[in-house]
Request: fold
Amino acid sequence: MPRVRALLAGTGTVAAVGALLVAGINGGYPASRPQLRSGAAWLASASVGQLTLLDGATAEIAAQVQVASRGDRVDVVQEAATAYAVNRTTGTIRRVDGATFEGVLTAADPKTLTSRGAPVPLATQISGQAAALDDAGRLWVLDTSSGDVVWIDRGQRHSRRGVAAPGAGLLTIADGNPVVVDTNRRTAIVLDPHDGGTRNTVNLDLRSGDRLRLSGSPHSAQIYLVASRGVLAICALTESTCGSAVPLGAAGNGQLGTPVETGGRLFVPDYGSGKVWIVDLKQPRVIAQPKVLDEMTQFQLLSRDGVVFYNDPNSEQAGVIRLDGGFTAVPKYDPKNPDKGLSGHGAAGLPPESAPGTPPDSPSPPAPSGPTPPPPSDPATQPETQPDTQTQPDEPDRVRITVSRSTALAGEDIALKVEATGRRQPTDARWTFGDGQTATGTTTAHRWNAPQTYQISVKATFANGRSATASLPIQITARRPTLTLSVPGTGGTVSGAGITCPPACSTTTAPGQPVTLTAKPANGFSFGGWSGGCSGTGPTCTVVMNADATVMATFPKGGTPPQQLGTPILLSPANGAVMTNFPRNTTLRWAQVTGAAKYLVEVQCDTCGSTPWTPWLTTTVTATSVSFTWVGDNTGRWRVTAIGPDGTKGPASGFRSFSFKTGPAKLPAPVLTSPANGAVFHNFPRTTTLRWQAVSGARSYQVEVQCDVCGPPGTMWVPWITTTVTGTSYTFDWVGAQSGRWRITAISNSGAMGVPSGFRTFRYTV
Reply:
């Protein structure tokens, strides 16, 4: 199986080569940010000291094992089906076999659980998001206090100084390559996994005060940066700038976690809101945002085989999230009786924990391979009733939920029923509906007031004292609000939302839809103004249909019509403009409208949200221009509406579109070091060495040497040498006692030529 690419967390100064117990055991993954490869995941429950194996295919519990005392700080590392419970309270590790669910206590080797390998001193301060293992088993650590990178390869320690600014670095692995993000310099540095050299540098669009979460793609050369202001940056490591940014909407108080990638989707945990933002990586946009837990819950997110698991280590709550945003909640244990359903020895059979370094006890004799036959029984002592032919006495009870409708409108009553799959039916049940409400009974009804996907969960109890659980998602959609127009008398009409009143004065709209109404007075009348859901005396008004709304328009006889605001004339940028500047600073300009006191500016992004043309900037200004920084190489559009002193809006301008295509920036010109410009040499042979400084992100360098008088009469500076080298020096033999000049151009990883240096001249006298 692929080797581990896991993030470490915490502080440390020594790493045990070969074991790396907490970081990842020979291909294991820590629960805080794992990347697993099979269909089931081990989840930790620190409050009860248990590990739970959750089957991703069936969303059912496959095993429940006691590994520690209740309240111990327990993490889990997984290799294939085997779990390693890391007890941070006692400093011990327990291995849980994926086949037998039996535990062995240890302090080191992932197979035998004995010490292995000599410790190698790192002499660094490790913080969260600053250490990782690559696909070849090399441990990479960023010393955040100095900005140095240290790596251990086959037991040997290596280092590179000053990769990042002190106190400003993050580290991850992307497509097998270590990547350091320097938040001070706003760059991502791609390192060569063999020698630690710089392969490429990517400029990042970061802001002062951003709190960042970083992860790397396991299969492609790109990283994902989540900023606390609610923006996800997707950065290709072969380019010079980040190409895509996705706004995450109203992220919960900036409490965003490390993203997880699987199946062409990126899952971003939002601890503040309890949601998970799901982003389509092919056309970067948010496609779903399921609310899986309560607000302000520090939960874990991990991916396996196209399925994402979420886990609250401090409660029984966990579940499975699908690629489309649907999810299934699966309780890990019964909070009233956590020992119920334990596999193996359970809590009573938990072996005592020895200190680290103490050899484990000798293994117990193997259990018989087959089941132990029951003792013979006296037929006369057996009950006359026969066991249920569909539900055997030792078989667990299973239940399912039926609903009167699989989708419903907000405020609509839905009937629910829990029933067993066998003949033995439950006698009672307790329901939760995902909105904080509960109910009891095997049948009930419920209504949800807000549109979203809710998780219905039920715990059914049977006459024999047993219980069973089931969960079911339900999609609640918003009721379409009603717009009612009122036009007293016969002085005019109001049109909008596909109707004209009179005669048609009522319609329904999509929730949140803005509707622009236009008043048109009849001959001999003037428009008096709006009331109800609109105000002002302008001929148009816009009402946002978040709820039912009633708008009245009056048309008095005669009178002076109010001043009509004109439509703003947009000046720049031109419609369809393609801009290449970076940073992507943009200024919109329009002509002044007579009578306008201010202007409403709307800027929308085509691929920044879950739907096309997501609002990106909506602001009101008194000037006739506005500036902002655009997000990524995305297409946008903008329009302007004039607003009068009384708040009356004029007609909106048409939309103009624009786009950015920054492309890869050129590498800078190399700094030439020797020989000095104008140098004169007297040596023979005329062996000459040119030297220059390395350029970050350069793969190689083009060397050009030209001769002043080597060509036909009348020609100057004839090319003498044009070659490509990978180092930062080049040696050659010059031709004759004459003048020459030279320059260097850096070449990027993609083969793009950078900015050439200026020429330096030299001359030989012999």
User: Anything to note?
Assistant: The radius of gyration is 35 Å. The mean pLDDT is 80. DSSP finds no helices and 64 strands in the chain.
